[in-house]
Amino acid sequence: MTRNNDATTYTDESGKFATGNPGRPKGARHKTTQAIEVMLEGQQEALTQAAIDKALDGDVTALRLCLDRIAPARKDSPVSFDLPDIETAADAANAARAILKAISDGDVTPLEAATVMAVIEQFRRTLETTELERRLAALEAIK
Known about the structure:
143 residues; mainly alpha; single chain; 0% strand
């Protein structure tokens, strides 16, 4: 089966992009998006002012739109609680114990604790990998 646009698609026989052709370049804009931007060009201030005026007149949707731009909902917040130093992979267990205590004391939420635990786990893996590399280098130096 042949395709009508086969000469312009830069694909191989299976329909995948050919080697060296990643497809649309990063940052490339869709034609529809470009057309809308051209239509709105120069109208940003007027549209923003119209939304503000409607919000001030009591339009709840316009008010929500304006407030979402002024004070967007926080997606993340800093977490502060005592955590022991982590110098070795074994110290990660003490850190996990501290996190469980912080949850039980109500200092952090379970979701916040899970995020912190993920960071600690990544750090533990880094420590472990570093230790393995150090040991391997020492063994190779002996040979």
